[in-house]
Amino acid sequence: MAKILLDWTKNSAPRDVVRTLREAGHEAFLAGGCVRDLLLGRSPKDHDVATSATPDQVKAAFRRTVPVQPELGVTMVLWGEERLEVTTYRSEGAYLDGRRPSNVGPADAKLDVQRRDFTINGLLLDPETGEVHDHVGGLQDLENGILRCIRDARERFEEDHLRILRAVRFAVRFGFAIEPATWEAMQDLSDRVATLSGERIHEELDKMEAQGSFQTAFGLLLDSGVVRALDTELDARFRETASRERMARLLAGPRRVAGSWVTLLPLPLCDWWESPRDFGKPGAIHPAQKSWLERLRCSRLESEASLFVWSRWPLCWESPVPPPSRQAALVRDRSWPAMADALGRFAAAFPDHDSPLDHLAHLADRIPKSLPALGVEFQAAGVPKGPRLGDAIREADRLHLDEGLPLDADLVSRVAKTILAP
Predict the structure, then answer these.
(1) Using one digit for the tens of pLDDT, what is the confidence trace for 285-315?
(2) 1-139 against 145-230: fold identical
(3) Domains of the chain, residue spans
(4) What's the pTM value of the predicted model, to 2 decimals?
(5) Rounded-to-integer distance, Cα 256 and Cα 242, Å
(6) How many whole angstroms separate alpha carbon 366 and alpha carbon 381?
(7) Alpha helices (H) in 121-197, listed in sequence order
(8) Which of 41, 333, 357, 378 has the fewest CB atoms in 10 Å of its CB?
(9) Quick one: CATH architecture of 145-230?
């Protein structure tokens, strides 16, 4: 039996909650991801408790509780400023919807961990002694760097299809190898991912990007069949070796914004994707790119940023380089950070190809982001609201950006006279 040296001086809530349950006559352990992380020398994001106590008994043992999923025996215990999920030991009936069990029944600690997904998540920890109870072989898999389903892998993935994505995420996060039987089951059942809601898929992909190498995750998503389940046309593009290698190089580049996978993965559908030499070739947005955003229930900001990159990309590569006033709209757009992320990745992936990123980034740093004061000044100079006011602001902006004239009263007067001239 393994043992962890624990230090509860900074946050004793996990130990205290377990101790309170035990003093009330119940069995209780820390369970799941927090035990795994402690064994790996990582700080757990949260602590979950598994107990023999029923939800009513948990409620009776604590002053502040919140029912989370009473039907599954899950109760939130509020202890000081901490929130801990306390879950009653349970066995589970058949999963009929690929997400939740049809019913739950009583269990002891050993039977309870059998329902969990992966062996590394099936460990129990006594927070008072530091002893780890392992009924599923999780300690050995942690030591060997193996991701393995508890019991039969096909059953685990058929129960909850999201576990296929979670397997990719955990493998990437910890740098673990996926055990052969688990990998085979992922490949056989990857089409089930298509039944998941866009929100659940989106959340898992976000976590993959935040927790590890998305370049590695991309390879696993493609080889397991998950990409095919999400979009057959995109999967077909990635089956081309050159396209797959190009995407892998992009994903290895520096990440400037979170969620950049939303924009990057559908890039092979762009007309200019085939060759770095065609980066500046005009192209339209492929219908499948918009369906990608809709399928994964992307936010309005994510959708705007992606459409901005896909549609405006050729403008970044115009040759000869256009005057600053023509490119100002690119760097003033609120989606510019997404474009800068994509350009930065291309610069890292294709260093032999001249990138416009430095030029555009310098332009973004030196130009005013907006010109609201000019509108007021031009109206004071007699330019009425409407098309002529817009013409005046654009002309002043052009003279400032392209000819270096200061945005002062003289420039306003000069442009106003030109605009108002009969």
Answers:
(1) 889 999 999 999 999 999 999 999 998 888 8
(2) no
(3) 1-139, 145-230, 256-367, 372-420
(4) 0.89
(5) 25
(6) 27
(7) 138-144, 153-159, 162-174, 180-189
(8) 41
(9) Orthogonal Bundle (1.10)
